[in-house]
Amino acid sequence: MFTALALVLGIATITSFNAGALDNAANKNKLPDIGISGYSILSTDKELQIGQAMMRQLRGSQPIIQDPVLIEYINHLGNTLVKNAQGVNYAFEFFIINNNELNAFAFFGGHVGIHSGLITTADTESELASVIAHEISHVTQRHLARRLESQSQTQSLTMAAMLSSILLTLVNPTVGMAALSASMAATQQASINYTRGNEKEADSVGIALLASSDFNPQGAASFFSKMSAKYRYASKPPAMLLTHPLPESRIAEARQRALNYPVRPLPPSLSFELTKARLKARYQGDARSNISFFTQQLKQKSYALEAAAKYGLALAYFENKQVNEAIKLLESLAQSDANNLFYVDALTDTYIANNQTNKAINMLKQLNLFMPNNQVVSLNYANALLANKDYDLAVQILQDFLLVNPSNFIAYDILTTLYRSQDKIGLMHMTKAEALALLGAYPKAIDELQTSYNFLEEQPLMQKRVKARILQLQEQENRLKRL
User: What start and end residues bound the annotated signal peptide (predicted)?
Assistant: First the structure.
């Protein structure tokens, strides 16, 4: 239901759906015998390589939200589910794409993308968790590899063709489906039928995973029902419904499966509501209309949690350059929840904008003692130190952070700015190269490293590191071509 890839299988493409049917807790992640597991076509190592390559291409081509607070939230939520899943072969990475379409998808190597529009449409955290649990189930059941095995028996596939097709439709399935030719109709229908069976299985595994992770197991049926009702007569349904219609039978089955688990009514989640408010205030609409929206919420008490509405209003004030109003609201919220990273991040921005950078530094210095290498704390701390021109400490904070989080794009971006401010041109180009490599732009990254080499004449050890890194990136690029 929740991937954008279903209808492109007929043109040398794979979809990110998994398998695994069951309807009771005792049997929860046992797969039916549907044939080979996909290992003969694609090893786990190969999956990881392909997943990393696709992730780099997505970073370079799609509006992935590089927001440490939202990254922290979506990965915490996702990993809460992953720790209760079976068949997990690697670390998962969850990310948000700034797109109002209702869509989510999973692909090789445990990568799960969620469109921002889906998050803001969900009414409860259990509804959002049901989508993520569904996608996790696809990955852990290795359905992509199974689909490859099935398709390889009827078509000759090249990995390059599949990657190209997948990336065409990940974010915009309408475009991908429009590209299907009439000559592929028979293969396309076979792909749809195959996917529908696996969607049913993924619904079962996902609901079981939802329940075992202490979310409301009715979250899936609730979200299904809402989607079906909202878009039943729409001329342009969302991406998920274009690829996976929601017949009443599927909604009824999801509702029936959930009855196998204890009813778990949950209070509103503050982190979920703050995430929705942040997406609304920073990534949707304009500042003035958002001020009006959150003001009305507070006036009419039409919110799930008052704190989230106040937080959204504070962010909208900040976006409208009403910094003092933002600080008043945020400091009031932080009084009772000083370690809340949503508030910490927003206060850092407002303090810096209001020439109160020392307040931000003092706040973050204390938090860094309790949460070392937390991405929200470390990145905000480095940014505040940068604003205060305390470059050496900022570099140290980021270097320590990157030892633990070597693929963090934001950290490399800030570090590049720091080295530029210190007039360390060789290091600046080295760091910029790492940021480009994360986008899959290997030729540009190698160019940056070659430039850095010329600025490091008095540092022969650094020059050796640059040479070694060039060889590594060249090998990564060649490995990608060999997939």
Answer: 1-21
Closest CA to 279 of 327, 312, 305: 312
Dihedral of CA atoms 42, 44, 46, 47 in degrees, nearest 10, equals: 90
Q: Which amino acid is at 367?
A: L
pLDDT confidence of residue 427 = 97
CA angle 205, 211, 213 (to 5 degrees): 100
Confirm or deny that 134 is annotated as ligand binding.
yes
Tell me the per-residue pLDDT of 377-436, one tens digit each, with 9 for 90 and over.
Answer: 999 999 999 999 999 999 999 999 999 999 999 999 999 999 999 999 999 999 999 999
Percent of the chain whose pLDDT exceeds 90: 58
Q: Does domain 320-482 fall into CATH 1.10.10.920?
A: no
Q: Give buried/exposed letters for 184-208 (b at 16+ CB in 10 A, else e).
A: beebbeebbebbbebbbbbbbbbbb
Q: Is 149 annotated as a binding residue?
A: no
Cβ density class 62-91: b for 16+ within 10 Å, e for less: bebbbbbbbbbbbbebbbebbebbbbeeee
Q: How do residues 315-333 score in pLDDT, each as one tens digit?
A: 999 999 999 999 999 999 9
Q: What is the pTM of this model?
A: 0.84
What confidence score (pLDDT) does residue 298 get?
Answer: 98
CATH 1.25.40.10 residue ranges of the chain are 320-482
Shortest CA distance to 314 belongs to which of 323, 304, 302, 303?
A: 323
Sheet containing 104-107: order of strands: 93-97, 111-115, 104-107
Token couple for 334: 């932080």
- The 10 Å Cβ neighbour count of residue 358 is 11
User: Which of 438, 448, 444 shows the shortest CA–CA distance to 408?
Assistant: 438
Mean predicted confidence (pLDDT) in 47-66: 87
203 is catalytic: yes
**Exactly one of 67, 101, 135, 345 is catalytic; which is it?**
135
Q: What is the C-alpha to C-alpha distance for residues 385 and 378, in angstroms, rounded to an integer? A: 10
pLDDT of residue 225: 86
Strands 104-107 and 111-115: antiparallel
375-387 vs 341-353: helix crossing angle, rounded to 10: 10
Q: Does 111 carry a binding-site annotation?
A: no
